[in-house]
């Protein structure tokens, strides 16, 4: 029963070679995001996770804002390579921005003070599950995608993103996933021995 799911998670990869096109219509992308947000679990069923789809010129605008912030203080080769990477993300078809609504996290933490310290951790766990579900679904649709964290670094940048895209100030950025039709397959991936990473204990 699990074979189809396991095959699906095995094809998900980081693919940086993306184009300005998407063979998947926007309505389908939106339906995928809605299904993933609806069915991915959250601690205490708080449903704190949020996802925003930006495509076309809005995607370019997003990565221009990120570049302005991320390139500050960088010099030389580091600046050139970072700039090239960010320009390529803005040149993709679109991005999914992932957020966690802090208003929801704060409300549950106030309701159950015994777990106040855990709720932010569980919130990060929840957004990771959502990111994986979207990443895998997009890959199954034939898209190339990566997971980026430039948008999660500075409060000022997150505030700029919230204002530009009219998002609530309680939505904190957790990751951004640029995507598009792939221009090339993903790079080779190496694996550490699985025997060292999974144990079965029977007694
Ligand atoms: C929590 C997390 C954070 C990541 N952050 C970034 C990132 O900021 N930029 C990036 O290019 N890749 C990022 N990645 C992608 C990993 O580098 C990538 O998944 C890993 O090398 C395995 O390759 P694969 O995605 O092709 O399986 C992140 C992955 C995870 C799970």
Structure description:
The protein is an alpha+beta fold. The chain has one domain: NADH Oxidase, CATH 3.40.109.10. Helix content is 47%, strand content 13%. The protein has helices at 3-11, 26-39, 57-70, 76-90, 102-111, 118-140, 155-164; strands at residues 49-55, 94-101, 144-145, 171-180. It has a four-stranded antiparallel beta sheet. The longest helix has 23 residues, at 118-140. The structure holds flavin mononucleotide. The site of flavin mononucleotide has 8 residues, from loops.
Name of the CATH class: Alpha Beta
Order of helices and strands: HHEHHEHHEHE
Number of strands: 4
- Low-confidence regions: none
Tell me the CATH architecture.
3-Layer(aba) Sandwich
Give me the CATH fold name: NADH Oxidase
GO cellular component, one term: nucleus
InterPro entries: Frm2/Hbn1 (IPR033877), Nitroreductase (IPR029479), Nitroreductase-like (IPR000415)
GO molecular function, one term: oxidoreductase activity
Subcellular location: Cytoplasm; Nucleus
Topology at a glance:
Layout: H1 3-11, H2 26-39, E1 49-55, H3 57-70, H4 76-90, E2 94-101, H5 102-111, H6 118-140, E3 144-145, H7 155-164, E4 171-180
Antiparallel strand pairs: 1-2, 2-4, 3-4
Helix pairs in contact: 2-6, 3-4, 3-7
Which key terms come to mind for this protein?
NADH Oxidase; 47% helix; binds flavin mononucleotide; four-stranded antiparallel sheet; alpha+beta; 13% strand; single chain; 203 residues; 7 helices; 4 strands
Please give a quick description of this structure.
The chain is 47% helix and 13% strand.
